[in-house]
Every structure is written in C-alpha cells, then in structure tokens.
Write a structure and sequence with these properties.
The complex is a heterodimer. By secondary structure, chain A is mainly α. Chain A is 71% helix and 0% strand. Chain A folds into two domains: 17-78, no CATH class; 86-321, Orthogonal Bundle (MetI-like fold). Chain B is flat. In chain B, helix 1 (6-41) packs across helix 13 (251-271), helix 7 (149-174) runs antiparallel to helix 10 (203-219) and helix 7 crosses helix 14 (273-286). By secondary structure, chain B is mainly α. Chain B has two domains: 6-41; 68-286, MetI-like (MetI-like fold, Orthogonal Bundle), CATH 1.10.3720.10. Chain B has 14 helices and no strands. Chains A and B meet through helix 1, helix 2, helix 3, helix 5 and helix 6 of A and helix 1, helix 4, helix 5, helix 6 and helix 7 of B. Chain B: Pfam families: BPD_transp_1 (PF00528). Chain B: This is Putative membrane protein. Chain B: Keywords: Cell membrane, Membrane, Transmembrane, Transmembrane helix, Transport.
C-alpha cells in the first residue's frame, strides 16, 4: 500500500527538484498543525528510544545511574547476560518470562478472539434485553486494569471467593488449590486478562457484523448453505479486516501486558513466581528493584525486536485484508 | 425449503433459547466479579476473613476509606492529571489528525508510519530513559519533572497522541472535502472552515477519542509508579496499594476504593456510550 503510493509520488519530485519546495510552501498550514505532535514525539518517543537503545550497551546500575549516558560502555555484555550467560540469574528469569509470555499471549489471543466472536454473533440478533446484555458485557472493559488486578488477586486467594465457590459450594475440586503460587499462576493471570479484553474486541466484531448486508446471507441461504457454511463463507471473510486488526492489537497487548499481573502480586512489590512472571513485570522488577538498567534496556530491545518480527509476519499474512480507505 | 414448515420454526426457537442462555451465562461471568467487589466493599474485614457473609450493608467503609489513607489527594491528583492529559493530547492530536487526513504533504506518509510504529514500542522502553533524563534535567537545568504535575502530564499526553492521531485521521477523512470548499467559497477562511464545519462534524470522533485517552490515562500505572511517588502528585494506582501491604490488610477498604475508582470512568463511559461506540467502531472499521 505505502510502497505503491511512494513510488507514484516520488517520480515527479525527482524530475522537478524545486517542486518539493513549492510543495512544502503550499502545505505550510499542514506542517504547522503537526508541529506540536512532532515536538512531543521527538522528546517523549524518539529521544528516549534512541537513548534506551544506547543504554543497552552501557554498564548502567545503581552505582553508575547518575552518569546516565556517560556510564561505562560494555558493548554487547548486557545482551550476553540476558540471552547467553548460563550463570546469570537475569537470563534464567528472562527465559522463564519469555516462555510464560508466549503461552499467555497465545492462549489469551485465541480465547479472546473466539469468545468475542461468539458473543458478537449472539448479540447480533433481534431479541429483548439486547441493549442490556451489550451494556453489561461491556462493563469489564471499563473497570481500570489495576482494579482488575487487585480484585482478581483478592478473589484468587486461598480462602477467597473462587475457592469457596469451587470447593465449598459446588464441590468441583476436592481441595482448595493455590492459585497465586506455583504453576496455577498462569491460569490466574490469563483469566482476568481475557475477562477484561473480551468486551472491547466483541464490540469491534459487532460493528463488523453490522456492516455485512443481509442480502449476502439471503443469497447464501438460497444457494443452500447451512449455518456453518454461512459463517465460514460469508461471515468470516467479511470480518477479515476487523480480525486482522484485532490480532495485531492482541500481539502488542499481550506481549506488553503489565498492569493486571503487576497489581495482582503484592501490588507491584511482589514477584509472580517463575510460572507467572511476564516479560514486562520481569524487566520492570530488574530495573526498578535491583537497579539493573543496562540489562533491563537490553531485554527491552530484545522484546521489541521480537514484537517487530511478529508484526512483520502479521503484515505479510494479513496484508491484503487491510482496508485502508485513504482519500 | 427448510424455511417454511414447523420444523424450521421449532429449530429457530431452540436456537434462540440456546443463544440467550449462552449469552446470559457470559453476562453473569462478566458482572459477577464486579458485583463481588461491590459486595465486599460493604462487608466488615471480619466477614471477609472468616467467610461468614451476611447481607453486605457496612456502608461505613465508604467513610473510613477516605480517613484510613489520604485517598482524596490521590483521587484529586488522578482527576487533574487525566483531565489535563485528555485536553492537551486531544487538541494536539486533532490538529495533527486533520493535517494528515486532508493534506498530502512531503513526509505525510513517513509521519503516518512513525505514528503507527510508536505503538510497537513498549512503555518500559520510554520509562527507563525518561526517568534518567528527568533526573538529568533536574540536575543541569533545575527544572523538576519527577513528582510534578507537568512532568507526568507531558509524558502521558505525548504517550497517547500517536494513537489518537490515528483514530481521528479516520474521522476527518470521512468528512467530505466539498463541505469545507463550500464554506471557503462562502467567505470562510481555511481555519474558519475547520472550526465551523469540520470540528462539529467530527464531534463524535473527537469525543470518542477523548474518552479513550481519559480511560487509558486513568488506567496507567507503569509511569505513575516511577514518576509520581510523593503523595502530592501520586495517582490512584500508586496510593491504592497502601490499604493492603506492609502496614495493614484492609481488603474491605481496598474494594471500596476500587468501586470509587471505577465509578467515574463508568459514568463517563456509559454517559457517553453512544458516542464512544459509534466513534470507536467507525474508526476501527475504517482502519
């Protein structure tokens, strides 16, 4: 999309060099309008990102913190500590977090998209209480995520409401499991994340569904398509652009997931344990609790590169589904 | 063929009943935790610990939560910071979004791509350098940015601008240029046309974006934990942790505070739900 446009645009500019200046002059107002945004983005986005990447090559810990970018240069040592040094504690923590985040991300993305799609389809009918159902389904998204973390952390406690319902009332489980320590932690962080994310994605799918003309379904029915075939050959293809955007959102949201997990375990002061630590909580703890800013920056760069790779893959897969309506 | 006949009607009815059952099961899962938060906020600490629940009616929690810690200060800080952030970010993003939607200037594609690329960078990538940068600025220039309103407002605004530009761009692009041109022919200036014609038409989108920025700012805690640590500027996510932790374990008050924190965003959201839903979905479908 962008390539095609650029090629078209650059040709005349190359032929007529002075054209660029007249163009800039003609668009003075446009430049004026984006100036504040650009200033903000330079100082709060560009400068920190560049210095963050620089920081990943520096020995930046509690002793050299005050020197900032003048801290001793150590090349790739931070990256080695994060990825390759088998004796480094940061490496084992980082790899745990990487594994957990991968599992967490995949489970959350798949379940959120499936549940949201199901709910959107169920909501996209005419029935009494439709407005009420939609409003109530939306509420989890409005609850601030730190409140979500706090609330679920409270509910997952050993004598909390979830264990009371599951064990004492419904007798589903023989004895009360520990949700907040050990391997069950991942479950305890996945469920609130899905709980809070579903409403928004559902809303997007619902909007997408409402754009599908009824005639398509009528036509499919006349052709003898059953409900599954109508879903498979009418609904899904028509939802591809919404779906692709939500997958992208999911990749970024879940890899960079922080608030709920951080708030659930000691309200930011705790440690979710090696089964529940996510990349962001891991980096945040290493940076602000043991003041290892250099390795923290290196780990962040690694995570960011992974996300960019994922986004590139996403772009390759969904390239054709992005309906970008430019004027 | 199946469309007529009793069999079809029967199936339709069964489908509807099944669909409603599943739907309201999900509705139950969606609101049960929220109801539990409200219920525990009305219990005594003793009831919560022992599990001998009575009818939740301990309204004193909603008085005690303000006295136990200085929650009002945190609440006030959050309101000031989020409202300022919304105003600043919305104004800047509206201008930029309009420029990107209407003008094809040299660099407009690059600008659009940069705006999107910023979304791929994790918050913590900004936080570490910004934290150290702010310390450096304070040392060399004497301007305090950590633990001040302007510091956190600048960071939040800049942080939410790119995404807001992207949503608003879609709205401005959907308004026909002809309307503006007509206004200009009628004697409006370019800016006059923007203010009198475009802004009113994009109102829904601007309100939706504003709600979105406010919700995000209200929700933010990574930067708040690092950049607002003193009580005079700390936001709710920093302060709310004091109910439970080293000094006390007041889950009743914590849940009451959780309800109080959720209420403003709930009111804003459901008060403006129509705008938000039309706004967000229109922007999202347009890409």
């Amino acid at each position: 999309m962008q390539h095609r446009k650029r090629r078209k645009k650059y040709k005349p500019e190359l032929i007529k060099k002075e054209g660029l200046f007249t163009k800039i002059k003609k668009n003075k107002l446009a430049y004026l309008l984006i100036t504040p945004a650009i200033i903000g983005m330079i100082f709060i986005h560009l400068v920190p990102i560049v210095s963050g990447i620089l920081m990943s090559f520096l020995k930046l810990n509690q002793f050299t913190l005050k020197q900032f970018l003048k801290a001793p240069f150590i090349g790739l040592d931070n990256y080695k500590a994060v990825l390759f040094d088998p004796t480094s504690t940061i490496r084992s923590g980082f790899l745990d977090a990487l594994r957990n985040t991968a599992i967490f991300g995949v489970i959350c993305s798949v379940s959120v998209i499936c549940i949201s799609l199901l709910l959107a389809i169920l909501l996209n009918r005419n029935f009494k209480l439709r407005g009420l159902a939609r409003t109530l389904l939306m509420t989890p998204w409005v609850v601030p995520s730190f409140v979500v973390g706090m609330l679920w952390g409270f509910m997952w406690q050993n004598d909390g409401i979830i264990n009371r319902v599951l064990v004492d009332i419904l007798h589903i489980l023989p004895k009360k499991p520990f949700w907040l320590t050990g391997p069950m932690v991942l479950v305890a962080i996945i469920i609130p994340t899905i709980w809070r994310q579903v409403p928004f994605v559902m809303l997007m799918f619902l909007a997408g569904l409402q754009q599908i003309p009824d005639e398509y379904y009528e036509a499919a029915k006349i052709d003898g398509a059953n409900a599954w075939q109508r879903f498979r050959h009418v609904t899904l293809p028509m939802l591809r652009s919404v779906l692709s955007i939500q997958i992208l959102n999911g990749i970024i949201n879940y890899v960079y997931s922080f608030n709920i997990v951080a708030m659930m375990f000691g309200h930011g002061a705790g440690f979710p344990g090696k089964y529940g630590d996510l990349l962001m909580t891991n980096i945040n703890r290493n940076s602000f609790q043991i003041w290892q800013f250099g390795t923290g920056a290196a780990a962040t760069v690694i995570v960011m590169l992974c996300v960019m790779l994922l986004v590139a893959v996403w772009y390759k897969v969904f390239q054709d589904d992005l309906v970008v309506k430019d004027n | 063929m199946r469309k007529t006949g009793i069999n079809y009607k029967k199936r339709k009815k069964i489908y509807n009943i099944l669909a409603n059952t599943i739907l309201f099961l999900f509705v139950f899962f969606a609101i049960a935790p929220i109801l539990w938060m409200v219920a525990t906020s009305l219990m005594t600490q003793n009831e919560i610990v022992t599990g001998k629940y009575t009818v939740p009616s301990h309204f004193e929690n909603y008085i005690e939560m303000w006295q136990n810690i200085n929650f009002f200060q945190y609440f006030k800080n959050s309101v000031i910071i989020c409202a300022s952030t919304t105003a600043v970010a919305l104004i800047i993003a509206t201008l930029a979004g309009y420029a990107v939607a209407r003008y094809k200037f040299p660099g407009s594609n690059l600008f659009g791509a940069t705006v999107l690329a910023t979304q791929m960078v994790p918050g913590i990538m900004f936080l570490l350098p910004l934290y150290l940068m702010f310390i450096k600025i304070q040392e060399t220039l004497g301007i305090r940015l950590i633990n001040t309103y302007p510091g956190i407002i600048i960071v939040y605004s800049a942080f939410f601008i790119p995404f807001s530009i992207w949503i608003l761009r879609g709205f401005f692009a959907s308004i026909p240029v002809e309307l503006e041109e007509a206004a200009i022919i009628d004697g409006c200036s370019r800016i006059g046309a923007f203010v009198r014609v475009v802004l009113p038409l994009a109102r829904v989108g601007i309100i939706a974006t504003g709600i979105y920025i406010f919700l995000m700012a209200w929700d933010e805690l990574l930067f708040a934990w690092a950049l607002t640590t003193s009580t005079d500027v700390a936001t709710i996510p920093v302060g709310i942790r004091l109910y439970v932790g080293n000094y006390q374990n007041r889950y009743d008050l914590l849940m009451a505070a959780g309800c109080v924190t959720t209420l403003p965003v709930l009111i804003i959201f459901f008060g403006l739900q129509k705008h938000f839903i039309t706004g967000m979905t229109a922007g999202a479908v347009k890409g």
